[in-house]
């Protein structure tokens, strides 16, 4: 099977799990190791696949801003629904904010310049795109989203895993539709700024 022989794809997924395992092994090194992980993601993606950018600047900026805001609104609605159910979602979200929110200026810088581009280039621009060569593109979206979520199992927070899966599906479908990594980066940026900086939950 051609998929099994794609050593870049297999090595990339394996490396992502190793790097995220180390990233979440100690809260004190999270920002350092995840920065290194995303630098690896960027490098792996650039040497493996051309960066798709099939939208004009005005178009990808507009779609990026709107889609990022829509995803935040969907997450806000989901958080509200979970908060009225016996799932202790609020406490899990509060724990994530407490342990992993940016604390220093350099945290915000790497979040914007490294984390967000790294995740989109790797999980959508490399993993999903590569999977799409071996299977139906909708199946590739689902599997890439599952793989994206799977590396967050090391966080120990089920809600982070679920959030990564649903965000991965959203951005995966958006990528399938518009074929624009810059648009996904803008969407991810708007979402993260709302979620982490301006309008955090809880």
TrEMBL record:
Hydrolase keyword on record? yes
Q: Name one GO molecular function term.
A: endopeptidase activity
GO BP annotations, alphabetical order: CAAX-box protein maturation; proteolysis
Q: Which InterPro entries match?
A: Rce1/LyrA-like_dom
Source organism's superkingdom?
A: Bacteria
Q: What is this protein called?
A: CAAX protease family protein
Q: Where is the CAAX prenyl protease 2/Lysostaphin resistance protein A-like domain?
A: 103-193
Transmembrane residue ranges? 7-24, 30-48, 60-85, 105-123, 135-152, 158-177, 184-201
Which keywords does UniProt give here? Answer: Hydrolase, Membrane, Protease, Transmembrane, Transmembrane helix
What is the native source organism of this protein?
A: Domibacillus epiphyticus
